[in-house]
Amino acid sequence: MERRHACWRTPRGDRTTPSIIAYTQDGETLVGQPAKRQAVTNPQNTLFAIKRLIGRRFQDEEVQRDVSIMPYKIIGADNGDAWLDVKGQKMAPPQISAEVLKKMKKNG
C-alpha cells in the first residue's frame, strides 16, 4: 500500500509558516510572514514564541526573563499563569496559538 503525503502550502507557496501573529491598529489579524513584517512597526502587538509560555506560571524564572526582553506585554493571570495583554485584552497563550491555526486554516 503506497501512501502519499501532501505538504500544505500557504497562498504564497511557502511550505512553512512562522508561528507569529500580529494585531494591527485597524483591527486586522495577520499570521506568518505578514505578521513577521509587522514586528518592526507594531512590536507591542506582534506576538512570537508564545508556545513557550503555555503552562508556565508568571513568576517562573524563564517567564520573568521573557517579560524583560519581549516587546509585547506578558502579564500574570488571576490564577498565576503567564498571559498576554494585547491592546488591553488579556489573552491566554493557548488562545493565541489557536488563533494562529484558525487563521492559517482560513487562509489556506
From TrEMBL:
SUPFAM superfamilies: Actin-like ATPase domain. InterPro entries: ATPase_NBD, Hsp_70_fam. The keyword Transit peptide does not apply. It comes from the Bacteria. Keywords: ATP-binding, Nucleotide-binding. GO terms for molecular function: ATP binding; ATP-dependent protein folding chaperone. Pfam families: HSP70. This is DnaK protein. The gene is dnaK_3.
